[in-house]
Predict the 3D structure of the following.
Amino acid sequence: MRRWLVVLGVLAVVGIGAAVYFLKPVTGPARDLTLVGDAERGNYLIRLGGCIACHTDAASGRAFLAGGAGLTTPFGTFVPPNITSDPTAGIGDWTLAQFSDAMSNGMGPQGHLYPAFPYENYTRMSDQEIADLYAALMATEPVSEPAAASQVPFPFNIRLAMAGWKNLFFSPARFVPEEGRSEAYNRGEYLAYGPAHCVACHTPRNALGALDWGKALTGSPGGTGGKAPAITRDALLGQGYDQDLLAQTLLDGFTPGFDVLGGPMGEVIADSTSQWTEADRAAIAEYMLTE
């Protein structure tokens, strides 16, 4: 009997230890929340970060940033929410601190956020960019109609489980430029891994939906991130790209093979990369095609 009590005691200690580990908060460096945001700069970040393609379902007649089409994954269908300034249907009642926590740590007022929202990438943004983007979203036209509800079955609808996922797979941190690289190269790397989140779509994920960072940009066969081709240097060179051609494709969608990119990438080009500065398109092309 005493032996069983010892075994039960050990199991209890192990269980408590596991719970403490998997439920502990995962947060990055503290943000400076005293910064004043600039809505004009933030409007550019809306285009830079792909907010429109995800949060505007134009095909269904939804208003600007009032909710996107569902993203189908093995864990359910996630519908990008209304992020207009409406205080009820949108995020108009969020404070800068709450917005920063969502963007940086994947924690919203409703609890843990699913990585279908790419906070793994947005966490790399600077404090000023977070303040600027918040200012821009708070200045949007409010839309009082909420987005459709996500369809996430049990047990994936238990948000608390995301605490364990974060402890396993999420390491929030700000972007650090590579020493010895050009300013444009570092800007391109920041865009690909940060706000533009190219890596989120073009990288395979494991069975739990986490990015396989060791295979970054090698393409996604489908599943959580959807199907997307490899965009490594070798893959792009094999398709006939050089830096100028890649930057041009991000502007007009035409490939070196005289094709036109459509589908999700076509939406990204229309709503995002075609509206970037020429310097940002050149920067990401330099990063992608430099050894």
In short: The longest helix spans residues 2-23. The radius of gyration is 21 Å. The longest strand covers residues 71-73.
